[in-house]
Amino acid sequence: VTVGTTSTQLAPARPGRTTVSLNNASTSGQTITLTGGATIPPGAARDIPTTAAIFGVSSAAGGVIHVVETY
Known about the structure:
By secondary structure, the protein is mainly β.
């Protein structure tokens, strides 16, 4: 998912999902900030156990985050 400097939906709400894995694949140093304030620096990953939608904002245009949903 390409993430800009305005809120971007990274994963929709899904009742049957158990976890969302997010990997910041940005190549220009962008940090991704999730709703609620958690951050994912470049090259880092975070697993979030949730069925809710997840949104994020990049520190600069052109952020990239890989999303994997587990059911």
